[in-house]
Structures are given as structure tokens and as C-alpha cells.
Design goal:
The complex is a heterodimer of chains A (about 270) and B (about 220). With about 270 residues, chain A is α/β, with parallel strands linked by helices. Chain A folds into 2 domains: about 5-105 and about 180-270, P-loop containing nucleotide triphosphate hydrolases (Rossmann fold); about 115-180, no CATH class. Chain A has helices at about 55-65, 95-100, 120-130, 135-150, 165-175, 195-210, 225-230, 245-250, 255-270; strands at about 20-30, 30-40, 45-50, 70-75, 80, 85, 90, 105-110, 185, 215-220, 230-235, 240-245. In chain A, the strands form 3 sheets. Chain A has a 6-stranded mixed β-sheet with strand order 8-9-10-3-11-12, sandwiched between helices. In chain A, strand 4 and strand 5 (about 80) form a beta hairpin. The longest helix of chain A has 17 residues, at about 195-210. With about 220 residues, chain B is mostly helical. Chain B has a single domain (about 5-215), classed as Orthogonal Bundle (MetI-like fold), CATH 1.10.3720. In chain B, helix 1 (about 5-45) packs antiparallel against helix 2 (about 50-65), helix 1 (about 5-45) crosses helix 4 and helix 1 runs antiparallel to helix 7. Chain B starts with a helix and ends with a helix. Classes of the chains: A alpha/beta (about 270), B mainly alpha (about 220). The interface of A and B includes residues 106, 114, 118 and 160 of A. Chain B: It is a multi-pass membrane protein. Chain B: This is Amino acid ABC transporter membrane protein 1, PAAT family.
Chain lengths: ~270, ~220
């Protein structure tokens, strides 16, 4: 068993990133996917995560929202997410604690995962009404605003099956934003889209980055997009951060050999 | 005696029997749906105290004969001081038995809902109960309607067994009429046709309608 006493119960104001991964290890059985990850994301920062498949990049997001970890502690907004306090010590979080600790985190998926039996508007209202306990009237107003923001107010009464992939992903972004998250996770949100509709989704994301003080972690294969909008790019390889830095530095002047190989392989594929 | 005369004489008794069959069928169907929801969800539960009883229930009721279960309820339970009216025993045995099959349909229907739907509901911090009732079950219901159509027709045909504990259903009347007239072809032929018409022209169209209705309601049209 890991000694949890080395981890603070809460992060101090002077050193409080929006997200902190501290010595985080994630294993599936005997396979170690992420090994002793240390990563801080500042409030309002836009971080892109790139890397070859199997490098653990999607796992970074899934640990924040969907999966448990086998070592280390993750903090969100200064409070532990994966662990809770019990008699002044950190212990493994209960299911309920974990679910509530994840409320400030929102997520969008590669395959949208809209609820097919609900309209676009109902998809957006579901969280605010069922989880935050908002009145239907307020939730409707908030959801309509967000559908307006993603340019789909005229589609609000359509079911997902009547929407294109790009439209579905924009609804999914609105649905995640309706919970007013502090951190938004974007997991390959353009990978399942036809090339001609990728632009409409990336436009929406660009709007979010400039207009809101939202912390965003984005896993992507679109290097041009990552370069354009990120504050920082992390290159993952073999379950570790191989290299990270400002987009211009990382893309134009990569220091590590694996980064260079990966970037040139991506370039030649383009 | 021509068949027309046979029908004129015994038609009303067949219709009385059909009425009893229809009521047994409806009550058993409602019970089967409730049982299958409870047991299907139970079998999927991560809590062993819920899962094991559900597994035991399903194995027992699927693994033994419906007729034996019917007799057990009717003849054996009274020995332990538990006596049900024969009408109640009839639909109870049917509903409990078919509910065990239904439980497997519920389980399969729920498991067929894509993993991403659970993840999306979880990412909105929905509680386990709300995830199930608001997101997963409505979709699972649509998945399992076609096999339910099969099961419901099995249930209808199964109602004929209640004649053996003297519930005066369609089969019971057919046997009685056969016993007094010895017109076997007419007696059982008429019952056969009535079961077929009930299944083919009432139950099946209803299930088709339900599928279409649910599909529209769930926005997949």
C-alpha cells in the first residue's frame, strides 16, 4: 500500500493549479498505462495532449472523469478528487465522493454519446435539472443560450439521429458546458468527424478558449489546431510525458528524438 | 351435427373460456414484466445480496417445468398453510415463470446499450439510479421489444396449462366439450383457431405497434 501521508489534504492557495496529477500511476491488470505522472494545469490554461496511440494520452482524461488510479493523487481546484479525507487522512474515494468531486469537470467524447431518446435541448437540460436541481425554466434558458453559442438553436428540438456528426459534437459541447464546469476534457472530439465538418467544431472550441476562463485539456490528432489554440502542448510516449512546452517551441524545435520522429511521421501522413 | 350447429351450441362456452384466458394472459404478462425488471436489474447489480437471489430465481424458474411449478403452487403450498385461489395460482405461476425468461431479456437489453451512454451519463455526475432510469432503461427497452414479442406469445400459449388446475379457460372448456360430445376435431380445432387468432391478430399487431410507438418516442424514426 502506498503511503498517502506524503500528499497534502488540500493544496494551499499559493500553489493551487486547477488540476494536479501527483505521482499518478494507472494500470490495467499487469499493464502500466501511465507511470508516475506529474502534471499541473493552471486555471484558464488550454493544454493539448498529443502522442502515438497507446501512449496513455486518452487515459489522462479518463482518469479525471471515468476511471480509478492505482497510485498517486489527483487534485482538482485544490481538493483531492481520487481520495477523500477521513479523520485527517487521505483514503480512497468512495463512489459517491468521486462522482461529486467530478462535478466541476465536464467531458466530450470522440463518438459524442448524445442521449438518442432526447432532443438536443433535452440533452443539454438533463444535467442541470437532474443533477444540479435547477428548475426546468432556468435550465431551458441556460441550454438555449448554449445552443445559440454553438450555433444550433434552430436544431434544438431535433433528436441526435437527425443531426450530422459535427452538429452532434457541438450539442455535446453545449451539454457539457450546461453543467458550468471549471475543467473541460475534450477526448479526440474531431476524430470521428468527416473532414468537411471538423471546422465547425474547432471554431466552437476556439470561441470557448477566447471567451471563457475555462480550463481545457484536449487530446487530439490535429497538430495544426493544437498549435493554433494551445497555451501548452504535452507529448506523451510510453505512459510518460516525453516533452512539453509552448506550441511554437514543441512543434518547430522539438528537443527529444521521439518527439521529432513522431512529428515528422505525422507531417508526412498529412 | 354440422360444425355450424356445433358452434351455435358451444360457441358461447368457447367465448367464456377465451375471456378467462385473456384475463389470465394480461395479469400474467403484467406480473412477468415486473418480475423481469426486478430480477434483470438484480442480476446486473454489483451488490451480491441483490445479485445472488436474482440468479437463483432465474435459474430455478427457467430450469424446471412450468407445469410442475404450477402444481407445486397449487397442491404443495397449501400444505405449508399458503393457499391461493386457483385463478391467482394460474397467472402467478405463469408470470413468475415467464418473468425469469424476461429477466434475461432485460439484462441483455441493458448490456446492449453502448458503454458510451453510461460514460456520458456519468460525466454529468448523474446518480446510479438516474443513469439507469433516465438514460439506460429507455434505450434498453427498445432493444428488447422484439424478443419480448416472442415471450409474450409463449406466455399466451402457456396459459393453456391453467386448465389443469381447473381454471375454466379456453383449453378447459375445449376439454369439457370434447368429454361430453366426443367431437375432438371440432373441440380442439376450434380452440386452436381461437389461440391462433388471438396471437396473430391481437398480440402480434399490438407488439408491432408498441415497437413503432417506442421507436418514434425515442427519436430513432
Amino acid at each position: 500500500m502506498e503511503d498517502l501521508s506524503q500528499y497534502p489534504l488540500e493544496l494551499p492557495e499559493s500553489d493551487k493549479p486547477m488540476v494536479r496529477f501527483q505521482n499518478v500511476t494507472k494500470r490495467y491488470g499487469a499493464l502500466t498505462v501511465l507511470d508516475d505522472l506529474n502534471l499541473d494545469i493552471a486555471e484558464g490554461e488550454m493544454v493539448s495532449i498529443i502522442g502515438p496511440s497507446g501512449s496513455g494520452k486518452t487515459t489522462v482524461l479518463r482518469m479525471l472523469m471515468l476511471e480509478r488510479i492505482q497510485g498517486g493523487v489527483i487534485y482538482v481546484d485544490g481538493k483531492p478528487l481520487t481520495h477523500m479525507q477521513q479523520r485527517g487522512r487521505l483514503v480512497q474515494a468512495s463512489e459517491k465522493y468521486l462522482r461529486q468531486a467530478r462535478e466541476p469537470v465536464g467531458m466530450c467524447f470522440q463518438h459524442f454519446n448524445l442521449f438518442p431518446h432526447m432532443t438536443a435541448l433535452q440533452n443539454c437540460m438533463e444535467g442541470p435539472v437532474q443533477v444540479l436541481g435547477m428548475s426546468k425554466k432556468n435550465a431551458r434558458e441556460r441550454s438555449e443560450e448554449l445552443l445559440e453559442l454553438v450555433g444550433l438553436i434552430d436544431k434544438k428540438d431535433q433528436h441526435p439521429s437527425r443531426l450530422s456528426g459535427g452538429q452532434q459534437q457541438r450539442v455535446a459541447i453545449a451539454r457539457a458546458l450546461a453543467m458550468r464546469p471549471k475543467v473541460l476534457l475534450l477526448d479526440e472530439v474531431t476524430s470521428a468527424l468527416d473532414p468537411e465538418v471538423i471546422g465547425e467544431v474547432t471554431e466552437v472550441i476556439k470561441g470557448l478558449v477566447s471567451a471563457h476562463n475555462l480550463t481545457i485539456m484536449m487530446v487530439t490528432h490535429q497538430m495544426g489546431f493544437a498549435r493554433e489554440i494551445s497555451d501548452r502542448v504535452c507529448f506523451f510516449f510510453g505512459g510518460k510525458i516525453e516533452e512539453q512546452g509552448a506550441p511554437a517551441d514543441l512543434f518547430d524545435n522539438p528537443q527529444r528524438e521521439r518527439t521529432q520522429q513522431f512529428l515528422s511521421a505525422v507531417k508526412s501522413a498529412d | 351435427m354440422s360444425y355450424t350447429e356445433f358452434l351455435a351450441e358451444y360457441g358461447p362456452r368457447f367465448l367464456d373460456g377465451l375471456q378467462v384466458t385473456a384475463i389470465q394472459f394480461l395479469l400474467a404478462a403484467v406480473l412477468a414484466v415486473m418480475v423481469s425488471l426486478v430480477m434483470g436489474l438484480g442480476k446486473l447489480s454489483s451488490n451480491p445480496a441483490l445479485r445472488w437471489p436474482a440468479v437463483a430465481y432465474i435459474e430455478f424458474f427457467r430450469g424446471s417445468s412450468l407445469l410442475v411449478q404450477l402444481f407445486l403452487l397449487f397442491y404443495v403450498l397449501p400444505l405449508f398453510g399458503l393457499t391461493f385461489d386457483k385463478y391467482v395460482t394460474g397467472f402467478l405461476a405463469l408470470g413468475l415463470n415467464l418473468g425469469a425468461y424476461g429477466a434475461e431479456l432485460v439484462r441483455g437489453g441493458i448490456q446492449a446499450v453502448p458503454r458510451g451512454q453510461w460514460e456520458a451519463a456519468y460525466s454529468l455526475s448523474m446518480s446510479p439510479a438516474k443513469r439507469m432510469w433516465r438514460i439506460i432503461l429507455p434505450q434498453a427497452l427498445l432493444n428488447m421489444l422484439p424478443p419480448w414479442g416472442n415471450l409474450i406469445i409463449e406466455l399466451l400459449k402457456g396459459t393453456a396449462l391453467v386448465a389443469l388446475i381447473a381454471v375454466p379457460d379456453l383449453m378447459f372448456e375445449a376439454r369439457q366439450i370434447n368429454g361430453s360430445t366426443f367431437l375432438s376435431a371440432q373441440s380442439f380445432g376450434t380452440a386452436l383457431i381461437m389461440y391462433f387468432v388471438f396471437a396473430r391478430f391481437i398480440v402480434t399487431p399490438f407488439m408491432r405497434w408498441l415497437e413503432r410507438f417506442m421507436t418514434r418516442k425515442l427519436g430513432r424514426a
